[in-house]
Amino acid sequence: MALLITEECINCDVCEPQCPNDAITMGEEYYIIDPEKCTECVGHHDTPQCMQVCPVDCIEPDPQWKEDADQLMEKYKRLTA
Ligand code: SF4
Ligand code: SF4
């Protein structure tokens, strides 16, 4: 499942450099995650790095992007091919 940043984001920019897939960018009002690039950090880390560092806990699973561990690993392989 890709992750999603909610409107509670305070634009602190702490998460963006932590993402191994460059999936996080500044959106129109707050930071956003590209679901095509977010693997929940599968392939790089044991836990989602952005969630670890976000000071306001505004990053959560995106219900529009349901993916299991195998699909996330496939996405990781596509991104690194
Ligand atoms: Fe990037 Fe990992 Fe956060 Fe997804 S979970 S946006 S890959 S840091
Ligand atoms: Fe927004 Fe959290 Fe990222 Fe800071 S760490 S920019 S509050 S999502």
Automatic annotation (TrEMBL):
One of its GO terms (molecular function) is 4 iron, 4 sulfur cluster binding. It holds the Pfam family Fer4_7. Keywords: 4Fe-4S, Electron transport, Iron, Iron-sulfur, Metal-binding, Transport. GO terms for cellular component: cytoplasm. Residues 1-29, 30-64 form the 4Fe-4S ferredoxin-type domain. Gene3D superfamilies: 3.30.70.20. Its cofactor is [4Fe-4S] cluster. PANTHER family: PHOTOSYSTEM I IRON-SULFUR CENTER, PHOTOSYSTEM I IRON-SULFUR CENTER-RELATED. This is Ferredoxin. It comes from Advenella faeciporci. The lineage of its organism: Bacteria, Pseudomonadati, Pseudomonadota, Betaproteobacteria, Burkholderiales. The gene is fdx.
